[in-house]
Specification:
- By secondary structure, the chain is mainly beta.
- It is built from 1 helix and 11 strands, in the order ββββββαβββββ.
- The chain is globular.
Length: 140
Amino acid sequence: MSVATVEGPETTTLPVIDFVAPIPGFPDDRRFVLVRLDDAGVLYSLTSVDTAGLRFLVVPPTQFFPDYEADIDDETLAALGVTDASDLLVLLVVTAGESGAGDATANLMAPIVLDQSSRRAVQLVLSHSGLPVRQKLMVA
């Protein structure tokens, strides 16, 4: 398992997350680190190891969408190399609002699915789910 050094107020070494397929729209970026941005563990930055400045804000869905469940298919489980979905972490990509945090939305249609033990991930596109790409964040 590889690690990357993250510069900031404190220099940190974090395990690298390897995407088994690139995030749509970012074909050259497959290696990221997950950086917690708050003490409560609600907001994270998924930061590219290979492209400076490329990062996505992500959140676990339970804080905002307690009933949210991503239907993880067998093909995705096979791509991640897992048979049991219980060790998978699901994260939602957040788009910051133009007027501030009150306008932030989460992409419910395309969650990031991460196998916590192998550090392999994929952005799962649930195209036939009817879930929105932009759902306003609301604390549950």
